[in-house]
Amino acid sequence: MVQPYFHSVTLETDNCKGCTICIKRCPTEAIRVRGGKARILELRCIDCGECIRTCPNHAKRAIADDFSLLDKYAYTIALPAPSFYGQFAGQDVSISKILQSLLTLGFNAVYEVAEAAEHVSLATRRYIENSSKRPLISSSCPAIVRLIQVRFPDLIDHLIPIQAPVDIAARLGKEAVMRKQGLRREDIGAFFITPCPAKVTAIKQPIGLGNSWVDGAIPIADVYAKVLRILPYLEDVPGLQQASAVGVCWGRAAGEEEAIRAPSHVAVDGIHAVIDVLEEIEIGKFHDIDFIECQACRGGCVGGPLTVQNAFLARVNMENLTRELSPEINPTVEKQVEENWGAGFYNLEADIEPRSILKLDDDFSRAIEKMELLEKTVGSLPGLDCGSCGSPSCQALAEDIVQGLASEGDCVFVLRDGVQSLAEELLELARRVPGSISSKTDTDEEEPPKESPKESGEVDRRDTTDQAAQ
Amino acid sequence: MPAVGGLDALISVTYDIVANDFVRAGEAASKIKRLLQQLGVEPGIIRRAAIAAYEAEMNVVIHSYGGRIAANITADSIEILCEDSGPGIPDIEKALQEGYSTASEDIREMGFGAGMGLPNIRRSAEEFSIESACGQGTRLKVKILHKVGD
Fold it and tell me: Does ipTM come in above 0.90?
């Protein structure tokens, strides 16, 4: 099958046992179990990595880049996520040493995504001041942007159209190297050390950006062991560490909200909690909140599926590492933002397009027909949401049936009822005595045909011809 | 569930609303919203319909003895009909003013009763009508126009 869309999150077919754990947790109902294996529905998947976290058999993994990609470029820049720092603990560990370790591993330079996060914090502050839309939702978490595209398209205009810190980091990092070393943009490779598969997807298929300045994403989990091994032998290098505590805190939940300092704000972490909040926004709540930070992962980026440490421990580590840092953004960053802001440096380059997965059909009258069938089908299913059919709920199975992707017989309860009535029919037939040896006539044996029970769905469909006549 | 609705409704849904049931409050509006999403109605229109349905539902939960809400969807409009069995609104003009509310202190402490319900509903819809008589209940009808997507 041709993939219409690149996804970082993929299935390791051999490891999949065909259980139904992932289908229940997927926030966009993007997984079905068919033929004993999970299948990811390309159009629905937002690469949040919730299935990577929940699969007990490690049958879901993220496709990302590895170190071999560095060879393609004359000059390479590592872009460590703020959450990367939180993976390391110990008295002798410092952010400077962590950055130094990336240089030792082969990168020519490092640019802290935390520093770019300071730019984004200041740009966002300005955006909030200049916008009358409320509530404004952060677009930094790529899984949340995709969630809004597919499940909450009417909230797209609440997303703040400012680029994510990693994209800004890549651009600032590359532009500095181009200036200092006289290199061309295409000679420089910028690599995100990522906690998150959604970011891998966002780099390959940017939303709201023509081409990403980021050239690859290497999972924190793949870098961790290498760094751990060399960390004890490294010395602090003055000048390498630039970001203040304000930028580094973006790596954990509520760090972004604290950095932006909107008059009224809230931070939400965990994709299911985010969904609850977005549902509330859709019915008009949260309208007096200026800024909402939304993180797909519990605990923020330190809870990302591609991290190593427990998210709570990583948070403590980050607090320890930032204790010595300035609690305020560096004035030179403020000056740079002042200069860049007017030129639209931080803005997304294109609109974020809706990709609704909920509509039953592009054609309205076909959608109505399917809706009617859907309600009927839901009524005929047991409503236990057991998942044995391979769809996450009875409602989802009904939708799959309406879309021709499943049949009612996939429901074990419907199947059991079918088998039962078949068995009763067989028994009935077996009891029949052939006319040649029976003293009765056929008509005595026959029962009147049973009337099938009427469905009482919630939906009442009127004649469409009335409509056409208007 | 019984279907009420206009003669030209293509699809209709009706939900009962229980007075003072804050646990289930908002569920009818959510179901109406989901239905519109499944029908592929334009996001901005869904937003307005969802706000109107939610505010109407909450009014019944907070102020009435109970009632029901219906959505009648045709190819060009979404009609939301909300009826309750009393006690009725003594002064509709006042109730339509922004910030006017008769909600109790308890209700306000829960974050409701800001006096924006009816004004928000009116703002969301192209057509708006409300009838109420003391002792008889209230009947609210709004219409939101939409175009079938192409």
Answer: no
